[in-house]
Amino acid sequence: QLQLVESGGGLVQPGGSLRLSCAASGFAVHNYAIAWFRQAPGKEREGVSCLTSSGGKTNYGDSVKGRFTISRDNAKNTVYLQMNSLKVEDTAVYYCAAARMALQSMCFIGRSFYNDWGQGTQVTVSS
């Protein structure tokens, strides 16, 4: 059974950094596109970043470009989201999701592409 478990969330001051982890079981992350999403209270779930199964391409939402970096450790079967220069508006529950894409070079940060989700981890940016 495919399972995703997020960790690494917490409370951080504006300008700080956090690294989120998405540990996968029941499948190999290098065979799936993996994406990060976030949802703030009262808002729609927003695509943050994705990584292709080939590992050669990433996509980022406009609000996080240049600050967040997605990466993968195949040996640990884990995908990471390094978040730097955090802002108050980055406060949300962060989720990772997995999907098979038609091509290994494809990934999207649209919610409709993903069927398998983790339970989420809370990130709070506050002074």
Architecture overview:
- It contains no helices and eleven strands.
- With 127 residues, it is mainly beta.
- Strands 2, 4, 5, 6, 9, 10 and 11 form a seven-stranded mixed β-sheet that branches. A four-stranded antiparallel β-sheet has the order 1-3-8-7, with no helix packed on it.
- A hairpin with a 6-residue loop joins strand 4 (33-39) and strand 5 (46-51).
- It is globular.
- It starts with a strand and ends with a strand.
Biggest sheet, open or closed, and with what strands and sense? 7 strands, mixed
How many distinct beta strands? 11
Q: Helix- and strand-based class?
A: mainly beta
- pLDDT < 50 runs, ≥5 residues: none
Rg to the nearest angstrom?
A: 13 Å
What is the residue-averaged pLDDT? 96
Structural shape: globular
Q: In which range does the helix fraction lie? A: under 10%
Following the backbone from N to C, one meets helices and strands in this order, namely EEEEEEEEEEE
Total helix count?
0
Strand percentage: over 45%
Report the span from N to C terminus.
Answer: 40 Å
Question: What's the gist of this structure?
Answer:
The protein is an all-beta fold and 127 residues long.
List key phrases describing it.
seven-stranded mixed β-sheet; 0% helix; mainly beta; 127 residues; globular; four-stranded antiparallel β-sheet; single chain; 46% strand
How would you summarize the topology of this molecule?
Blueprint: E1 3-7, E2 10-12, E3 18-25, E4 33-39, E5 46-51, E6 58-60, E7 68-73, E8 78-83, E9 92-99, E10 116-117, E11 121-125
